[in-house]
Write a structure and sequence with these properties.
Lyase, Ornithine Decarboxylase, Chain A, domain 1; TIM Barrel; nine-stranded mixed β-sheet; eight-stranded parallel beta barrel; 12 helices; 27% strand
């Protein structure tokens, strides 16, 4: 199913006109298709049906409780990178025994929280982290299940900020250091080595980086023999890209085939960490035109969404298609689509050919379901927008628009 399509010249999410959502909820508003999320998850999960696996949705991509609850009902596990994300999973009814905890900077309190809830596995990224988890588990009289995240030194061929699998990056441990660290972990009384894995980046549109990383990891395991080490989980990370403009990422079936050709004989349960691939194209950001402006030959469309609502264009130079809420036959011009924030970097698109717009027109920023609202801020004291979930002919506000009181909650109104 195509989640966003025109019917009688009106853009719809499933069977709901987005103009009706904007009228009742306001703008800026994120809108997600529940059916699209369900279909994307099932497609990804089904691709690996031939082997034992757990599809751990990457919470960082979109952490709304309703989205997490939906994925939990579909059978997802969860990949988290903070204590806050663990609490979100728990609030959504998620099973901590299906949670893997990644990230280079887990604090002692976050480790304690994860130990208290007996998560499936810590994905450990340094020797120092091994020692902290050993100490915290010992203090609680527990044994922590750990997997080692290896840095395979593989270039992901994506935006530099999305690449995580090279030695110059902060993530994981170098391949040559991994055997010694695994042996050390195997001797620690409060650690149980259960897995090994990698994550080479995000928005990857070719299979080569995944295949090369897995080949290097498989070579490492073939030469590893140590007491106390029984690798039961092989975490192949996430990072499969989506189409924003004209990218042609592999389908989940092709991705699975490439992984399974190498992993099938490794006798491990696969842990998968898709995020963007599940929710990215299942969401849009609705925004209204405030006014247009012409300055020294340049045309601007000024909208009510800004870089605080969707920072990807400003942060990454990311491309998002922008389409009208209603198809119109107006002359096309080249525009910058910008927001009200007091930064030159506040733009949603630059030098974009679009049909002429008028104040009050509704626009949809496409492919905004991943790394959209989760990046939102209150810069310029702007309340964050609403989030809406659509299924069929119904929609539900799954996060209300913030108010001024939300903005200042927790702040003191008087100085010393």
């Amino acid at each position: 199913m195509e989640p966003f399509a025109y019917c009688r010249s009106k853009l719809h999410c499933e069977h709901v006109p987005v103009a009706e959502i904007a009228r009742r909820v306001g703008t800026p508003t994120y809108v997600y298709s529940q059916t699209a999320i369900e279909e994307r998850f099932r497609e990804f999960d089904r691709a690996f049906a031939a082997v034992p696996h757990l599809t751990c949705y990457a919470v960082k991509a979109n952490s709304n409780l309703a989205v997490l609850s939906l994925l939990r009902r579909l059978g997802a596990g969860f990949d988290i990178v903070s204590g806050g994300e663990l609490l979100r999973v728990l609030a959504a009814g998620g099973d901590p025994g299906r949670v893997v905890f990644s990230g280079v900077g887990k604090s002692a309190s976050e480790i304690d929280l994860a130990l208290r809830h007996d998560i499936l596995q810590f994905n450990v990224e340094s020797e120092a982290e091994l020692e902290v988890i050993q100490e915290r588990a010992g203090a609680r009289g527990k044994v922590a299940r750990v997997g080692l995240r290896v840095n395979p030194d593989v270039r992901a061929e994506t935006h530099p900020y999305h690449s995580t699998g090279m030695l110059e990056h902060k993530f994981g441990v170098p391949l040559e250091r991994a055997p010694a660290l695994l042996r050390k972990a195997g001797r620690m009384p409060h650690l149980q080595v259960t897995g090994i894995g990698f994550h080479v980046g995000s928005q990857i549109t070719r299979l080569d980086p995944f295949v090369e990383a897995l080949k290097r990891l498989k070579g490492l395991l073939s030469g590893l023999r140590a007491p106390g080490i029984a690798i039961g989980h092989l975490d192949v990370g996430g990072g499969l890209g989506i189409t924003y403009k004209d990218e042609m990422p592999p389908r989940p079936e092709a991705y699975a085939e490439a992984i399974l050709q190498l992993a099938r004989d490794m006798n491990c349960q696969l842990l998968l960490e898709p995020g963007r691939a599940i929710v990215g194209n299942a969401g849009i950001l609705l925004t209204r035109v405030l006014r247009t402006k012409r300055s020294d030959g340049k045309n601007f469309i000024i909208v009510d969404a800004a870089m605080n609502d969707l920072i990807r264009p400003s942060l990454y130079g990311a491309y998002h298609r922008i389409v009208p809420g209603t198809v119109c036959r107006r002359r096309h011009h080249v525009y910058d689509v910008v927001g009200p924030v007091c930064e030159t970097g506040d733009f949603l698109a630059r030098d974009r050919e679009m049909a002429a717009v008028r104040p009050g027109d509704l626009l949809a920023v496409m492919s905004a379901g991943a790394y959209g609202f989760v990046f939102a801020s209150n810069y310029n004291s702007r309340p964050r927008g609403a989030e809406v979930l659509v299924r069929g002919r119904r929609f539900k506000v799954i996060r209300r628009r913030e108010s001024f009181e939300d903005l200042v909650r927790g702040e003191s109104r008087s100085p010393l």
